[in-house]
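Tutorial handout. Part one gives the primary structure; part two gives the three-dimensional structure as tokens.
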Amino acid sequence: MDVSQYLEIFIDETSEHIQSLSDCIMTLEKEPDNKDTINEIFRAAHSLKGMAGTMGFKRMQHLTHDMEDVFQEVRSDKVKVTSDMIDLLFRCLDAIEAYLDTIKETSDEGTEDNESLIQGLNAFLAKAEGKEAPAEAAAPAAEPVKEEPAEAGSDDKKKYVHIEFTDNEKEAIKTAEEAGGKVYGVTVYIQKECLLISE
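Part two.
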């Protein structure tokens, strides 16, 4: 699929997300427990990952994917925001800006893998899982296999993806149930042919 016609849209939206990330990281530096800021960084990284993947910018996608994974752990209170994390995030932001500058000039992201940043992000993930940090920079991780919608008559449980909720989200669900409300899970499938699909 030729997505070159969407390059200008990608550049504009990526610039907006970079500015948002910059503002959020500065806020997080002063308020490391600010949940709204943590959630905003997660959303921005998630959006950048999906956009980069759609455009075929795999290196940028890999970096933002790992940033998203780290902030999922922060949202789940498995990892605390530290000054080292803030420094790493600013370096990641510089790398994303460098990718964008290269894309503006050449319509390609270049060949920089930013292995030291990937290694640093993986170290935070390893800490969350109680493992030792990797000794060397990890190779780009394969994208997770996505399940296709189950055929009619098959086991419906296969349709749904497991979601890990934060403590605040669990409390909100519990409160809603106790008040007589109902909680629903919805899985949305998008046609493969859809343009600019975001993960």
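Part three, for discussion. The chain has six helices and no strands. The CA atoms of residues 50 and 169 lie 24 Å apart.
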